[in-house]
Write a structure and sequence with these properties.
elongated, homodimer, alpha+beta
Amino acid sequence: MKAKIEVFLKPEVLDPQGETIKRALHTLGYDTIREVRQGKVFYIELDEKDAGKVIEEIARKVLANPVIEDFRWETEK
Amino acid sequence: MKAKIEVFLKPEVLDPQGETIKRALHTLGYDTIREVRQGKVFYIELDEKDAGKVIEEIARKVLANPVIEDFRWETEK
């Protein structure tokens, strides 16, 4: 089965990379952009067995840094 | 309004980073994982005016490399 895990900075954590992108977009004339924050997304294919448990675990322990990041996931099909 | 833009490698493009994560997960015992591919996600806040056009343009011209990447986007609220 397929799953998608999104990992993103907690709202209270500064995102200098997003800030830089926002400034670049303003420089290019896209001045309707108010905020940009960047995250990561992982597209995973895995066996059905215990899939929910496996996804939760790898997101929490491997893919996200729980000090500064949150995650959400969904399955496809 | 809020929008989310996902940028991901085209299916025919190798993803060594995803391969590395997959191998790391196997080493940790998560051997039900068959494939991992990594992408980027941008959370954007922007003015309503021409939002769809602006999102399409910045995704195509700035956030994604159209030679090797595709993107999809959706708005929230």
